[in-house]
Amino acid sequence: MGGCRGPVLSGGWRIWGRAVEGPHNSVGADTTEALTATGCLPSEFRFSSSPTMENIRQLQAQFTRERDWNRFHQPRNLLLALVGEVGELSELFQWQGEVAEGLPGWSESQREALSHELSDVLIYLLELAEKCRVDLPQAVLAKMELNAKKYPASRVHGSAKKYTEYNADNGACSSTEPGLNA
Ligand SMILES: Nc1ccn([C@H]2C[C@H](O)[C@@H](COP(=O)(O)OP(=O)(O)OP(=O)(O)O)O2)c(=O)n1
């Protein structure tokens, strides 16, 4: 099964250090279930339902307040911190060549480092959005709606071209609606 996500625990499968709840919680699961539980079947991967973006915003706000760090956490500084963390995230993939979905062959410590860097990026992103007064959960829905209009599935299915290339090809995805070409 390729060992996508580390060793089996006595009560179930381990996903990056945490046990999986639910029907896969047994060592005797068949291979498909085991792959699903370890996240090796990409379509079966799910995030936990909590914490929400708002929960994380609150936790980081508390962390910052308790250290009297709001004096440092202005938008520009948060953006620079975010970019720094993106750099650290990039380092994990640097010189690796193409990396397959599920990261087969990555060690537990590499996966842990990845989860740390992704989390740092998210934490700074959410605080940046807060300090810029962007309601990110709503903003992301609105942006995804724009994306869907810009890239109609029927038009672009199977192609990774930028929408401007479709416009050049005959304009089917272009729009004069404000913000649609953002
Ligand atoms: N002024 C700061 C410093 C840290 N953090 C929080 C947000 C990030 O999640 C994490 C960043 O901490 P570090 O700057 O120590 O960076 P790393 O955790 O990436 O450590 P390293 O750079 O050693 O890998 O801590 C923060 O909110 N504000």
TrEMBL record:
Gene3D superfamilies: MazG-like (1.10.287.1080). Keywords: Cytoplasm, Hydrolase, Magnesium, Metal-binding, Phosphoprotein. It is found in: Cytoplasm, Cytosol. Its EC number is 3.6.1.12. Transmembrane segments: none annotated. Pfam families: MazG-like. InterPro entries: dCTP_Pyrophosphatase (IPR052555), DCTPP (IPR025984). It catalyses: dCTP + H2O = dCMP + diphosphate + H(+). It comes from the Eukaryota. Its cofactor is Mg(2+). One of its GO terms (cellular component) is cytosol. One of its GO terms (biological process) is DNA protection. One of its GO terms (molecular function) is dCTP diphosphatase activity. Hydrolyzes deoxynucleoside triphosphates (dNTPs) to the corresponding nucleoside monophosphates. Has a strong preference for dCTP and its analogs including 5-iodo-dCTP and 5-methyl-dCTP for which it may even have a higher efficiency. May protect DNA or RNA against the incorporation of these genotoxic nucleotide analogs through their catabolism. Homotetramer. This is dCTP pyrophosphatase 1.
